[in-house]
Amino acid sequence: MKSRTQALQHPVFSTRAPERRADSPPASSRAALDHFLFAPHERLGSAGDIWLSGCEGVALSARGHAAAESAFAGLTSGAARPLPQWFEDLRGRLAAMFGAPGCEVVLARSELEAEDIFDALAHAALGRPVVRIAAASPERAGDSGPDAPTFALRDRYGLPREADAINAEAARLAADAIGQGRDVALHLADCSESGLAGPTRAAAEAIAASFPGRVMVLIDSRQMRCAPQHVAADLDAGFAVLLSGSTFAGGPWGAAALLLPPGFAERIESFALPDPVAARSAAMDWPPHLRDRLRGEFSALADLGLGLRWECALAELEAFFVVAPELRAEIAAAFAREIRRHLAGTPALKLIDDGWGAEESRAIFPILTFDERGRPLKTEPLRRALAEPGVRRGGWAARGRPVHVGAPLRIGAMKALRLSLSAPLVNDVAERMSEGRSFAAAFQPVADDLLEAFSLWSEIAAVDSN
What we know:
about 475 residues, seven-stranded mixed beta sheet
């Protein structure tokens, strides 16, 4: 008789994206679970590390891992949970947390895959070839292609553009595409890789109203800096919404979701997926009535790894949105104050866009690093040195804990490293307060982490300057 772990390897199941290793999972249930959650180079994060990389991804927390363990046990126990019901529950939890009545949820292995799915569905709903219009790289992760129309969120010097200029450019690109006989999938950045947004919702509505039946809008909220009521409002307005469980939410890499507004599915009689997406998408990622309208076949019945990664993310997100909005805002404000306090005392570090826009709602902090002569330092080796402080750099004897920050992002002619809050960090502060600690005491571990991170950062910069 096959073991439960062997049974899950039946060809109808997909356990990971194609680039993940294909060997059989280890015998122990914990090792088998981690095989489904992580790619070969990934791991369960060390509790001793400092994680300030919520714009890109953070280590899987004990809270998230425990949720995945519980779900995995339920799937492999003697009274195994039915897979269709499990995936239906996952989609239902996302809809209940972010959605509006009647919204539909499609699960995906990456944010880029979710974008491709939206464009395929928009093509099916609108009927003509669809042009994707999105923010230009690097403000949007991924590349739409060399000939794809994009709007810039920054000028050539790296300064944020005015909203009116972004709106006008998006409207012009849409009009050009429609004039050439194509329809438009407009991808609106709710929060870009550096914290910018554009075009505005009002502009997107106006573009869609100017070309009835020719434009569909996707709100790109992969950075998860959105309140549930704002997502509900976007869906109510007829916009689709892209979410990620792998950045702010703290789930392992490879968990995204596409929320479709009420009535969207009724516009689609049948659809096809691009070959790369069709090779990865599993039937249970989809609501039943959309699943049945696919032309062709899904690659597998179910992707257990995707479901388990969303279990991790939902454990953090559901806890995060239970925290009172006022407390979430207070934690974010304290986080921002600590960053600014350290920057004020560290001349080598400069915050991008300082004083621009709504500072009270800032979520991502891109920081440039300079030497004593005012020359920008290379960010790739700097980031590695922060994450590996035990590696000796020149005459400097490194010390301290590993510090993880967001990957380098090009801003004009320079590159910045990014600090960002995450849901696990907020949840940890709220949990300490629930144990009876004051706000100051509950936030102190975060303040201590920031102090250590900036001390290490400034010391590395001083060594490189010499």
